[in-house]
Structure formats: structure tokens, C-alpha cells
Specification:
The protein has 355 residues and is mainly α. It is 73% helix and 0% strand. The chain has 2 domains: 2-136, no CATH class; 155-342, no CATH class. It contains 15 helices and no strands. α1 runs antiparallel to α3 (56-67), α4 packs parallel to α6 and α5 packs antiparallel against α6. It starts with a helix and ends in a 13-residue tail after the last helix.
């Protein structure tokens, strides 16, 4: 059991979190640069953004290899593996990179520094394994992800209330757990952007619900733990990560209830009332208010014509964005928190950070 926990932590926490950082440092930051490039006379920034987006696969794979503490030659070789897996994976590119990079770098690490011609053997093994898996397995991963994404998109258009509720709650929980909600959203292509493979109106709706759920967790915990953590805790959770509460959640799971209820309310409101859709990069759907990147992704989708946002942006869109991402998560979480505190279900110190 301990061995199983060790490998689950290694691959689905450490490696997945690193993959999200690789995505952030390439695809996401590239999207921001491209948006800034729309400002007159700053077109060069759009070019820089395009360069950053183009290396998303290598950045993810190298980040995974680095997080798994691989030797330098394995890390450097992983870049080519990431490019191949992302290219061959189609709609499931990020997910293909995740699985294929892990296998390739782990096998590369097995031979690393074991021979006198390490400079040839290590990259050869790493790239051979990763290349073969990219050619023969990555397309199947892409097909599978396409089926899942298609189902999510279909469900979002057929039953937006229930899909909004489910996606919001699940992605919000994933954001607070020590796994990467951003990587999951990227892997499932939760965006309607026409530049994303496998995108659709339904996936745009699901992406909006994911933003709602992630924002509910971060803003909710930031507000209800203010008594324990003050302004520092408000900022570290509100624009940092609600993952900081995981040790407290393990000790007392009931403290998770207010943000979860908030996400269960804001998700359906996002899909059914405000029609909040993600047309920015899919990774934004799982970022919440971390660096304000969830709301920023929504706005970038509105402003960039290349994303194909299908309608004009009006006052209701901006009001909905503020309500779903900030105001309602804070209000709902606090309303649920008050009676829980009054009846002793939550007490002073239960959400104290850095105990």
C-alpha cells in the first residue's frame, strides 16, 4: 500500500503539477503575450506568444522529467518526446505528453550514467521509447480524449444545469486537491476556441463551469478563513491556491463544505443564467483566480477575434463574470460558513495556515 501511494504521489501529484507548470510557461503565457500583441504597435508580442505556444509539448515533458529528478540528458531528451507526443496526440496532446513522457523518462533514467557512452545511450533510449509511443499510442489517446470531450460538450448543450453543476464541483475539488485541475482542463480541451483541436460550443460551456468551480474554491476558502489567516491568507488563497488548505481538510473535512456548495451553485448559474463560456486557452479553465487567470482567460476569449467567440460582449457578460468568479463564491461560502460556525462545526484555528 505504501508503495502504491508513493507512485500515485510521484505521477499524479508531482508529475501532473509539473506538467501544469510547463503548460503555464508556454501555452498560457503565450496566450497572454498574443493578447497583449493586439495593442497597436505591440504586434511583436503576438509573435513571441506564438513561439511560446509552439513549444508547449517540449515544455510539459521537460517539466515532468525535471520534477521526477531525472538526470540532465534525460531532461533534455524529454523535450523531443514532448514535441512528438503533443503533435501525435491531437486533441489529447497534453494527456499523451503526460503518460508518454513519464514512461520515456523513467526508462531513460534506468540507463542514465550506466555506460561509458552515456551521451549516446541515454538520449537514444529516452527518445526511442518516447518516439515509438508517440507514433503508435498517442493517436489512440487523442481519439479517446476526443470521445470524452465530445461527450462533455454534448452533455453541456443537452443538460447545461447538471453538466455545469458536475463540472464545477469536480474541477473545483480537483483544484484544491494536490493534482492539477489546469492540466485536466487542458487535457480535456475545455474551450470553444477555434484554434483548439476538438473544440465546440459545449466545451466552451463546460470550460465556463470549470472556471466557476475553481474560483469558488479559492475565493470561498480565502473568505471563510480570513478570521484565522488575515489579509495574508486572503491573498495567498484568493490569488494563489486553495491547495494550502489540504492539511486542514485532511484533519477536518467538513471545512470543505462551504466552497463546494458555492461551486455547486455558481456552476449552473454560469451555464444557464450568464452563459459564461471559455474561448481562451483550455488551461485557463482550471486556473480559478490563481493570478486571476481564470477570469483573464474568459476575457481574452472575448477580445481575440482568432478565438472565434460567437457573440457580442455586453454589460451582462461583465456582470456575470464578476458575480460568478468573485462575488457569489465569497457570499455563498460565507453564508454557509456562518451557521456551521455557530453550531460548532467549524471553530477558530480549523483553517489556520502553517500550523
Amino acid at each position: 500500500m505504501n508503495t502504491l501511494k508513493k507512485y500515485l504521489k510521484r505521477y499524479f501529484i508531482t508529475a501532473m503539477s509539473a506538467m501544469a507548470q510547463g503548460l503555464f510557461a508556454s501555452l498560457l503565457i503565450g496566450t497572454i503575450f498574443k493578447a497583449l500583441g493586439m495593442i497597436p504597435h505591440l504586434g511583436v508580442l503576438a509573435d513571441i506568444g506564438a513561439f511560446a505556444q509552439a513549444v508547449a509539448g517540449p515544455a510539459m515533458a521537460a517539466a515532468i522529467a525535471f520534477a521526477l529528478k531525472c538526470d540532465p540528458l534525460v531532461i533534455f531528451s524529454a523535450a523531443a518526446v514532448g514535441y512528438a507526443a503533443n503533435a501525435q496526440g491531437g486533441a489529447g496532446g497534453p494527456l499523451a505528453v503526460f503518460f508518454i513522457a513519464i514512461i520515456a523518462v523513467e526508462l531513460g533514467q534506468l540507463v542514465s550514467k550506466k555506460t561509458k557512452v552515456d551521451i549516446i545511450v541515454t538520449p537514444f533510449v529516452t527518445l526511442l521509447v518516447g518516439g515509438l509511443l508517440s507514433v503508435f499510442v498517442a493517436p489512440s489517446i487523442g481519439t479517446l480524449v476526443g470521445y470524452v470531450s465530445t461527450f462533455i460538450g454534448w452533455a453541456a448543450t443537452q443538460a447545461p444545469f447538471f453538466t455545469g453543476l458536475a463540472v464545477s464541483v469536480v474541477m473545483g475539488i480537483a483544484l484544491t486537491l494536490p493534482i492539477s485541475s489546469a492540466a485536466i482542463c487542458a487535457g480535456l480541451v475545455l474551450t470553444g476556441s477555434i484554434v483548439a483541436v476538438g473544440s465546440s460550443e459545449g466545451l466552451a460551456i463546460a470550460g465556463g463551469a470549470a472556471v466557476a468551480g475553481c474560483c469558488a474554491q479559492m475565493v470561498g476558502f480565502a473568505v471563510i478563513s480570513y478570521r484565522d489567516n488575515g489579509v495574508g491568507g486572503l491573498l495567498s488563497q484568493g490569488i494563489g491556491t486553495s491547495m494550502l488548505q489540504m492539511p486542514n481538510i485532511i484533519r477536518k473535512p467538513i471545512i470543505w463544505l462551504p466552497p463546494i456548495i458555492a461551486s455547486a451553485v455558481t456552476g449552473p448559474l454560469a451555464t444557464c443564467t450568464f452563459s459564461m463560456k471559455m474561448y481562451g486557452a483550455a488551461i485557463n479553465s482550471g486556473m480559478g483566480t490563481c493570478g486571476l487567470l481564470g477570469p483573464v482567460g474568459i476575457v481574452l476569449g472575448w477580445l481575440d477575434p482568432a478565438n472565434g467567440y460567437p457573440s457580442e460582449v455586453g454589460a451582462l457578460d461583465w456582470i456575470g463574470l464578476a458575480l460568478i468568479c468573485f462575488i457569489l463564491p465569497a457570499a455563498i461560502s460565507y453564508i454557509v460558513y456562518i451557521p456551521m460556525r455557530r453550531f460548532g462545526l467549524i471553530k477558530d484555528g480549523d483553517m489556520k495556515l502553517d500550523k
